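Worked example 4.2. Below are the chains of a multi-component assembly; read each line carefully before continuing.
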Amino acid sequence: MIDDLIKANRSCRRFHENQRVDLKTLEELVDLGRLSASGANLQPLKYILACEPQINAEIFSTLGWAAYLQEWPGPEPGERPAAYVVILGDTGISKEFGVDHGIAAQSMLLGAREKGLAGCMLGSINRKALREILNLDPHLKILLVLAIGKPREEVVIETVGPDGNIRYWRDEAAVHHVPKRSLRDIIVASHSPGPN
Amino acid sequence: MIDDLIKANRSCRRFHENQRVDLKTLEELVDLGRLSASGANLQPLKYILACEPQINAEIFSTLGWAAYLQEWPGPEPGERPAAYVVILGDTGISKEFGVDHGIAAQSMLLGAREKGLAGCMLGSINRKALREILNLDPHLKILLVLAIGKPREEVVIETVGPDGNIRYWRDEAAVHHVPKRSLRDIIVASHSPGPN
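Applying the procedure described above to all two chains together yields the following structure tokens:
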């Protein structure tokens, strides 16, 4: 059931780094992005895959992790992602990428979750450094990085309280808590023919 | 399996309009968006739901349909969507919405597909007219409209040919064909420890 998968698909930031993710797995995930909707069907997204320790370490060095956990600089060696998918926009195809990378990233992380993996969409990227590491052609723009691996942390959904605070937090047992707004707080209006 | 669902989840533009979609179903879909990832967990998305013929007709009048089918102005009466989810960005929460609405829209349409429904993400919107119809507060920005209903058309995935043409087309039997780029055309580079 898709709702179970979506609920289980929490952003994960600590992994069993020594549990490798192979290239075939990453290609299967990209295929899910490939077959997802694209604005005007332009399909301007391109991908770079990484599951090799040396390049992984270089990619890792360009990423910003959990902004709200100010005392936590990011995952330590041994709990870092085992793989990355770098999502690029091909400016030779389109200058605007709309929400194509959001759609594709969601498909890919749902696929990862189904395989027993977990991931995180990272937008806080030192793009200049990552361009150099990946030796990117000028027509390719860095949109998002997906970090992927075998999950090493527990994530729990909470309800946003009356103060409206949406900052996630980590408890003593290192469980990660994520407050989500309730349905009644996000539905502005409903137009229906009356009681069903 | 998520890959079957993603493959089956084709953008649909013709529906059995008389097969109603109720408010509970729309709320279940919004709940899937609600539980999906959000940049910095800000959750700035808000939603308006519609499944009532009069408001549906007004929303329909603001939408642009398939840009590449120049002889087809959009679905005729009887084959129009039975419901809409209007995705809004709350500028009181964030000025930038990143790809949050792409992530949420993909979750919602996968959920719709699992329920035997289909939909289409529409970004070609007469936003000024839709604002008036929905009587929107100034702090809410229209991001996307999801059209939803019981599907009335067949959609087939094709492979983009050597000419690179990505325009979808409709054949004599009104089957809708959508060319997708192949995996080898979208993966720019792979970094792995060697043959697995």
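Take a moment to check your reading of the output against the notes. The radius of gyration of chain B is 18 Å. Chain B touches chain A through 77 residues (CB under 8 Å).
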